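Build the 3D complex.
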Amino acid sequence: MRREELEAAATQGLLEAAAAREQKGTAARERKAAGSAHERKGAASARERKAAATASEENAMAAPLQQKGVGSAAPVAKRKGAATPEGAARYPPASSFIGTPTSFGYFPPPVQPHGACWGQAVEDLGAADDGVGAATPEDLEAADDGVGAVATEELEATNDGLGTAAAEDLEAAEELEATDDFDPADVYTLEDFIVEDGKLQAFGRKIGDKLKAKYEGDSSEPPRQAMNDDELIPGLPEEVARECLLRVGFDQLPATRSTSRRWKAEVESPFYHRLRRARGIARPLLALAQAEPPLAAAGPAHKYAGLSTSYRLVLHDPVGGGWAALPPVAGGGALPLFCQLAAVAVCGERRRLVVVGGWDPETWAPTDAVHVYDFLSGAWRRGAAMPGPRRSFFACAAAGRWVFVAGGHDEEKNALRSAAEYDAEADAWVALPDMATERDEARGLCVGGTFVVVGGYPTEAQGRFAGSAEAFDPAAWAWGPVMERVLDEGTCPRTCCAAPAPAADTTMYMLRDGQLAARDATADGPAWRAVASLPEDGRTVTALAAIGDGRVVAIGAGSHGAEQAVYLLTTEEGANKNGTAAAAQSWAHAPAPPEFAGYVQAACCVEV
Amino acid sequence: MAAATDDAGDSNEMIRVVSSDGEHFEMPEAAANLSLVLRHMIEDDCADAAGIPLAVVAAKPLAKIVDYCTKHAAKSSGLTIEEAEELKRFDAEFIEVDTDMLYDLLVAADFMGVEGLSKLAVQRTADLIKGKTPEQNRETFGIVNDFTPEEEEEICKENEWAFQITKPPSRLC
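Done.
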């Protein structure tokens, strides 16, 4: 930018500032004018009130005043030497009730209007006050009930009008007083103008300097002093500040959101979360329903530790290796046993964790409870309860903002065909069509936007798992045909997990005979392909999750009864020295820290 | 400052830059190339003896940036594990600065297009938020609490939980 342009810009700034000042002056004048209008209005309403008061005094009645009305009317009444605001608000002695008091502020339907037209005045309060000692809305309403009433609207309107009129009246009076004995300090003099003008000039110069500094480097002034209070981070350019906030850890999101309105708006924006993902800042985290750490190995309580296992939710970052406990669910209770976890994205990418069903940890009764954790607010709230029979061991998976549940068994141990969908944004459940077969202990996955229910068994085949699966397509609102032989007959589908969305042909993973297997769509139809052998000490893995980029996390005890460990499979795609494509796979093995070494009962992946 | 390290790059030419407050600095061309702005200037033959003027970068942060670029340019390719570790340590030490300097570096790195430094400084700023309460955040960044008391109360209710991230002592392979 050239110097002339800069100067022009500076002048423009000056002109604008001057215009703004001009406007301010006009606004002030307008306020003044409005003030006198109030004054007139006030006088008028005072007259009206006088008349109304006379009219109503013989009836010794008062209109039910809303709290607001009482509040603003009271000062007027006080001037009259009648009820004080405190007096008006105080509860009346029981003896002063006529009829049944109704709730404050709510006016019951009109009872036989007698055609009496009474514009109610604040002074009525005083009048009623004289009669019964303490004027209260109940009081007034009771009095009203005694003689019949006018239409609610009419009264309400009058009240509102009154409240405002009284307030305006006061305001006008104050303004009048201020004008009456005006303060010379308030007068805008030539000196004031010169001072202000000087300030504006300085401001204009500053803007010019800033612009110069930006484009020519003539000024040594650091750029941050040029910023105003509206910035995301004062002193930093918006885009830089935004970059900084993007990199806040998931655990810091709640505190970040609570820092200021700007920060709150920033982290709540869908754009923020999309960018976090695009920059690879959002991390795949595993939410785990994990047994609380066992009691200290020593001491008499130890041998009972196994009997009273309670579960909590834990977040694990399989890439960074961090572990953190989530706050207890709303109500502070322990996590239900055998609950299901699902991660949803609501209100534009806002991640929430949904805990569905399970057994009450005390009574072992199945619960229909839904708990929703918001990663932004860092708080739990109760969701709408799961409808239908209290189901246990059902299939559950999330797609977008929806959580699907299907199958499981009811309280009579009947395997279920029914299914339902929870909309996390609307906090509402909708029943789905029934599945073709009953599926108890089935596994739910979300594959390409459809809800796939794998395996499970009908009531009469207790524990003999079927190898079939069926998929619900939310767009068509129907279950697809039953897919046979997805798993081998008799295989527990527990370790099945969906491949992350962008994966080319792979739809799901599972553990088969110590091998991690992927189900690929091949020319002859989908088939399982061995991906990698689990490490020798990881054969008892119970939870599996694919976290993208060919990485798969397996969590389980290294050996039966041992503490939990995390196995992370990474696949490095690339060409080897001969030029042929090769994928180098390796398991990284990390034992969980002692306080996170408990048994993992359910897991789900959430990207925050 | 402006260490004249001969690097293995294709050019040993020194590039002169001038801070906003008129101080001159020198760095190898390979180091200057880490800055998008400087690289374009060099490509356009704008790097003359008078030096490239950097309008918004004062001497103090510029000295740091020259330092950073020189270090990183000298160690850009074929890093051994030890060298990578050393560079990591250098970065960690390098960014241990006060907020004023951090802001200067953020703005300057952004302006000069030094990607690595931008990332480093941005991450460092984000790390300032780590483990902080909202009140501490406001203090650190000079932010005014503009929530109404009602909003504040709501937030306090939500924000009682303080995350504690535990990392295992080491990762076995």
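The radius of gyration of chain A is 36 Å.
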